[in-house]
Target: Cytochrome c oxidase subunit 2
Amino acid sequence: MKQWLYCFAVALMAPPILAADMPLNMTQGVTEISGRVYGLHMTILYICCAIGVVVFGAMIYAMINHRKSKGAVAAQFHESTKVEIAWTLVPFLILIAMAIPATKTLIAMEDPSNADLTIKVTGSQWKWHYDYFDHDFGFYSILATPRSQIEGAEAKGEHYLLEVDKHLVLPTNRKVRFLMTSDDVIHSWWVPAFAVKKDANPGFINEAWTRVDKPGIYRGQCAELCGKDHGFMPIVVEVLPEAEFDAWVENQKQLASNAAAEAAAALNQTLSMEELMALGEKVYMASCAACHQPNGMGLPGVFPGLKDSAIAIGPVDKHLDIVINGKPGTAMQAFNKQLSATEIAAVVTYERNAWGNNTGDAVQASDVNSHGGESTAAPAAQVEPPANDQPAQASTAESPSEAEPVSDELSSDEPMSMDALMARGEQVYMASCAACHQANGAGLLGAFPAIKGSPIATGPIADHLDIVINGKAGTAMQAFSPMLSARDIAAVVTYERNAWDNNTGDSVQASDVNNHGK
Model:
């Protein structure tokens, strides 16, 4: 018996190196924080094992050596001060010994200060959207596992349900700060190798950070029960050496510029019904079928069907409006920043002519643009997922104002009317500002300040111009002078000073922007 107890104790107290190879144990990860979390886990595990050995050892020893068959007689004692002190003090000291390293690790995990790169992570049903604040581009990352594998029509791949069309790309040796939020319900961004697991709550911002020293591909998934396709919301992070990451960033900017040019050119193209239906089916299967089903029947009581629906066979304008702007209070998202004008036109055409709807309507990109849904998303060619060895392509391009030559705008001093400034300002605001400050100007509590009724938007114009032109150091507020023309800055400042009941009456012109700071 004593020999068995000795072997059991040795097995429990084996070095952590052996435990790291156990398939059921916690993974060590690839970051300093994940290493500290693993070390903390193993420390507390072995403390618990030691307590278990002592407690169960004492119990087994007492049962064997003080049993009635050996003539043992139970001792009669109670209210022992020494025993009371011992079983109070010993657990207290054990808890303190565990709390000190745990507290240090938690404090380090919650310190995103002095980050080299900030990325906003937005969860949507059921995809992730990544905004690179420091580089002014972003994209959606969507499950890439083929439906045929999900439905059992073909063998499952190596990374079944853990593969996406566009990877989140990070550099090595740089501290990356994540801002987590959600468009709809609560999601949770979890990458075990980084020891990062943070909830994404609608209307709020949570923070996390990581610093990865080892290049590679790391996988995770949504860790919150967020709805029907919770299990189809993976995360794939590709970590590149610093030089390769910088080259990737420049490539994304070029791709975004090309996408904007292609989107602009597409507005003058007329696609045939066959071309629209073929492209529309691809877009529908990639972006709509998860809710509305491949056969357009929807899920009764949850997601409405499109076959013979009032939207799909009713007025085209209403159909465009709900696809472009979504429907508040429901799972129907706004696709104006996820799909290009050509893709929106194609998918609306498909929905109006598939499953026996047969309206005969052929919607073109120009119809989407005239409806107010000029998209900043990638062109139609990006519907197909890129090869795994290709850099992920950004799905958001520059806004129309960013594509214009800044020098041309700076040389124009022609005043604009208040109506023209407000119309253009709203367009710029929705493209460049609403992601943080929200479309209603209310901001995000604890993360991004509101503009509605704020001292900036209702105070001196010079202060307002200064923060838009030069940004605000130490915050996520960027300098927009390299990104927007003088006329666009004038328009968006005018819009912010007069929207949402701010009503200052101020009309800012491009000349005011050019003369600011002189």
Residues 1-18, 373-411 have pLDDT under 50 and may be disordered. The radius of gyration is 29 Å. Strands lie at 117-124, 127-132, 137-141, 168-171, 176-182, 187-191, 196-200, 206-210, 216-222, 234-240.
